[in-house]
Amino acid sequence: MSKSHSAFRDYLKRLRYFPRIIPPFELRRSGKDIETYIETGNLQANIVRKYGSANPGSHILDIGCGDGRFASALASFLKKGSYTTFEVNKSFVDYLKSHVKKKNFQFLHRDIYHAYYNPKGQIKAENFVFPFQNESFDIVFLNSIFTHFRPKEIENYLLEIHRVLKDEALVLSTYFIANNQSLKLDRQGLSSKELRMGKKYLLNYEYRNYWSRDKIIKERIIAVKESWLKNVYKKSGLTIEKIVWGYWCGREKTEETVHEQDLVIARKTKRFS
After folding, report:
1. How far apart are CA 236 and CA 182, in angstroms?
2. How many domains does the chain have?
3. What is the pLDDT of residues 14-30, one digit of tens each?
């Protein structure tokens, strides 16, 4: 089957879901089928509704929109509120800006360096200042962003998140959290085979505050240590209210399980120096 024929078939399939915004095949990330795109977008939207108390009037910051599956799921939900994001991949941003025709949806491109996703980026994440006013958002959401960040980068982002959140507002972010349980399960060979990518273990290289799967490009998979994470949240003025543990390391799913990764729900409070 030719590329043009495949693209046309994909276009026709996307039309079935109109008015849902679904990018073409080449702009959809892992799980490129449309059903997975919609399912994972709905999952993220359900998380911010359940744990972030999102409503049609909420002002939401999505850090790293990727291919827009979360934005796509929110397009018909956010009536009086707003959706804002910044993303390192300009192709994603350009597509979403041209197809999500809503005044309350804003897509920004920022050339932030990342060893894996944007190795030519000019802005260091550990120094990046979010392009927003203080106390602008009701909810900040990060899906699989801190799973690719080193501790210094996470520290800066959490401080910026505290700054742009309204008082008592929430940040919901996913992690791979390294603790005794997740390390034990990984050493038993129970962690995700898909994440391991042929390696015996997922957490192979230990550093001061994190573990990585790979030695060269560590940012491909990073698991932060639980004790460090809780301490940096406290210093950032973010009170952790709940951790919903994921099944990435081999934990059994429960009725509460909502994500493969570990979901941390925290509320803005006062900072501690």
Report:
1. 25
2. 1
3. 988 888 999 998 999 86
